Automatic annotation (TrEMBL):
Biological source species: Paenibacillus segetis
PROSITE patterns in alphabetical order: HTH_ARAC_FAMILY_1, HTH_ARAC_FAMILY_2
Name of one Pfam family that matches: HTH_18
Domain HTH araC/xylS-type: 243-341
This protein's record includes keyword Transcription: yes
SUPFAM superfamilies: Homeodomain-like (SSF46689)
Entry annotated with the keyword Transmembrane helix: no
Keywords attached to this entry: DNA-binding, Transcription, Transcription regulation
Protein name: AraC family transcriptional regulator
Amino acid sequence: MVKSRFDLEHIIDLEKWHKLQDSLSLVTKMAIITVDYKGVPVTKHSYCQSFCQGVRQDSYLSEYCQKCDARGGLEAVRLNKPYIYLCHFNILDIAIPIIVDNQYIGAIMAGQIKLRDTDVPLLEQIVSRPTNTETNGKFKALKDDYHSLPILSYEEVTIIADMLFHLCTYIVEEAIHKNTTLDMYKKALSHDINQPSLDTISTSDRTYRNIQAIQNELSSALIETKVKKSASHPFTSSNPVLQPAFDYIYSHKNENFTLQEMAGRCHISPSYFSRIFTKEMGENFSLFIARLKVEWAKQLLETTNLTINQISDDLGFCDAGYFIKTFRKFENLTPSVYRNAYKNP
């Protein structure tokens, strides 16, 4: 492979990128690491699962992990899209290619999860590892950690993969822009070293802000998908401590819910409730409730002839004006316009 004039350190500020990588990992519930074209990590793992930590600390098994990263990345660049596969322990991973100047220079690797679905496309185990007594013993020692791996649906995995792919595409575009700008700046300096130039504006700071914006879009999209899926049916929390709150919310749609009241129903302090709720749902309590009520309102607008005032009352809004304002915040149109658009496509 011909060495590119770009490398990952020129494309992204690795220190800043790792902070964003940590945030993306929290939102997606996936471990994430960035590797070069050989599969060698250039960042630390973001929230590496305890099972995978144990495997990667083993000198023999870690070689297979690195082979999975390398081959997964190469397969992703061959397909020019996210590649979803199984590692040598049959754990699901995703490779997102990073390509600059038509050259593959690395990948973002995400995963360390198990699938909830049983009827999914057959996934390839990209690296096979011969079994032996020693490795079987190591697996047994980590068996509890293996069973505690996060579980996602295949649909959630594909949504995350597509969004991370768009993020990688953006990074490539910023890389080209950044290097072009730096070249122009160097040329300007060669003509007049004392001449001030707009090119001195930090492109790395701009890149950081723009990636943060994409991160926020990713978070919002994933949260919206989760709320849409749970709007029709009671939500089952992965944290059983929160379940009494969700049970009450879904059986009392006409009420206004406060964080303090829901914390009391879960028999925990409001501060602890707020912290674990945000971790579970990806956004704070008040924003989640507003978004959920808008989803319920959309169902009523689509399936009933209730007036806007009636829907507002049925969902516990203080008045129709506030209901319309909240609905517009999430949907960028009023409830009436939404109903007309739905019923008259």
